Amino acid sequence: MSLRYLSAKVAQQIDDELMSAAGAFSLDQLMELAGLACAQALAKVYGAERYPRVLVCCGPGNQGGDGLVAARHLSMFGYKPTIYMPKPGSKDIYQRLHTQCKNMSISTLPEDEQSLRTALKSSDVVLDAIFGFSFKGPIRAPFDAALPLLSTSRLPIVSVDIPSGWDVEAGNEAGVGLNPHVLVSLTAPKEGVRLFRGQHFLGGRFVPRTLEEKFQLNLPTYPGYDQIVDITELTQKL
Amino acid sequence: MSLRYLSAKVAQQIDDELMSAAGAFSLDQLMELAGLACAQALAKVYGAERYPRVLVCCGPGNQGGDGLVAARHLSMFGYKPTIYMPKPGSKDIYQRLHTQCKNMSISTLPEDEQSLRTALKSSDVVLDAIFGFSFKGPIRAPFDAALPLLSTSRLPIVSVDIPSGWDVEAGNEAGVGLNPHVLVSLTAPKEGVRLFRGQHFLGGRFVPRTLEEKFQLNLPTYPGYDQIVDITELTQKL
């Protein structure tokens, strides 16, 4: 049985079920575990000694919240993260997660393009938490300018769930998305990343067996007590 | 600089600051990370192959909530946890965490003493999340009967924060507490465990540096991306 790739609609249904009265998870819990998984995946590939300066790019939605959680954990892991968040989310949880980062002395870039340019020159790796599985193009300002800057920086990129700019189902057909070296799919990979050929992790070790079966996810076994599992080979078998 | 041992009052102050408007953490977040740390510590010492059956004993307070989170993660890690929770907490979060466990097919024992006796005979290790740092004796029913049963079972015990029955500051002077093999202190060890001589982990990798400095915690460095650090040697230097 092979791993299921999710449409945007099914990904949303799974999230809804997890947070329904029956699923009983709070957004705080799921975001904490998702962000921790992203931080672990980055730490697994890009060690803090060689890649201390992480530019954490956050969109305005829940994906941006995952990024803020990851930034905090990365700081705990010994990294020096900086947050790029030109359109802060309006939800209360988003503000709280940002405050937690500020309490860790993690700085946030000014919103202008030049600040991003400058920051990229003094970063070692990018965590891309801009767009998630609810992304619908086209890419709007200020991200229409930011994505090309990230791409041309030639820094290694770790993308969360779907590389920013990729269609959740059609992938990077339009060619305007990022080309991450590492992808962290959350819960299960999305349709759009079938052709992704970098290092691929799965995170979101919180899906109950009943939900896994209902949606026929066929999840792999996570190792030990990690919050991530490497699915590179599993997804790139010929 | 040595690790600071906390009084019950200071432990409460730190919790309050973390969850204040300035600290910005939600109880959901902190409990998730605390419970995950407990599950990791148990997994580090008692592998799922030799010790699959974990009896997770939960008190009615936040400590019991940590236990429920740990039970869920242990189930994810491949253990077969069972919950003993004779006095369920009344908070909404407690109910939600219990529902999450039920969704993982984790069973909860009936509340009677005989069920506990029977369950102990088919368990490999106990996770003690009965009393936390707000415990004030004497030990009341049904825990006055449960603690001796846990002690006489001779199963290895992993205690969370303060071994149940120990005074948070005076320790096990009265001799009525559990004698765990492993202790997982959360945030920082409590005064009462200065004389603990088993394997000792620290969890709660979420304390911002500013708070650490304000309370002079002198926390050790956590390894890699673990949520726990072994402080056995650090706390048992002569």
Automatic annotation (TrEMBL), chains A, B:
Keyword field contains Nucleotide-binding: yes
Reaction(s) catalysed by this chain's protein: (6R)-NADPHX = (6S)-NADPHX; (6R)-NADHX = (6S)-NADHX
PROSITE patterns: YJEF_N
Record domain YjeF N-terminal: where: 11-219
Binding site for K(+): 63, 128, 164
EC category name: isomerase
Superkingdom, natural source: Eukaryota
Cofactor notes: Binds 1 potassium ion per subunit.
Compartment(s) of residence: Cytoplasm; Mitochondrion
Protein name as catalogued: NAD(P)H-hydrate epimerase
Lineage of the species this protein comes from: Eukaryota, Fungi, Dikarya, Basidiomycota, Agaricomycotina
